[in-house]
Design goal:
2 helices, 4 strands, 37% helix, four-stranded antiparallel sheet, 24% strand, alpha+beta
Length: 147
């Protein structure tokens, strides 16, 4: 009888653990989906508005080419050092308080103005979020040709 109770208890604990893992996986996949969606939206706004080439590759002051993520510090400190999704130049385009932050880098494929690749920019957008005190990220890259 005692052995049957132990086997039943182990089985029930296994089922409870699998439910907990399933809930955590569902939450993570939802966050990942939202991060990818924000990523795509930011890249599309940069491309549609031709922000990669106005007037030249943007600087940090323009709100693009964000400063790099700090090497030192806690995950939360790194997260808080990043710009909000709706930071310039997207002030009125994205909602406040999404729980996500961004890092944008834009660079030309060539530094030579006579080269065809000079008119093509690589846009890299990384969206970050905190998940159980861990810094998570999704990075997407796109190319944009100057019209």
């Amino acid at each position: 009888m005692a052995i049957a109770i132990v086997v039943l208890a182990v089985g029930i604990l296994g089922v409870v653990a699998s439910f907990a893992f399933g809930l955590q996986s569902t939450r993570f996949s939802g966050q990942m989906s939202r991060a990818i969606s924000w990523n795509r939206q930011l890249i599309e706004m940069i491309r549609v508005r031709n922000l990669a080439f106005t007037p030249d590759i943007p600087t940090q002051a323009s709100g693009l080419n964000d400063p790099p993520l700090p090497e030192e510090g806690s995950a939360e400190a790194k997260f808080l050092s990043l710009r909000e999704l709706n930071a310039p130049p997207f002030l009125n385009d994205l909602p406040l308080g999404t729980g996500f932050r961004r890092h944008i880098q834009i660079q030309r494929l060539s530094d030579n103005p006579g080269d065809y690749h000079y008119r093509i920019a690589q846009i890299q957008v990384t969206v970050y979020w905190m998940d159980n005190s861990r810094l998570r990220e999704v990075t997407l890259k796109a190319l944009h040709r100057q019209p």
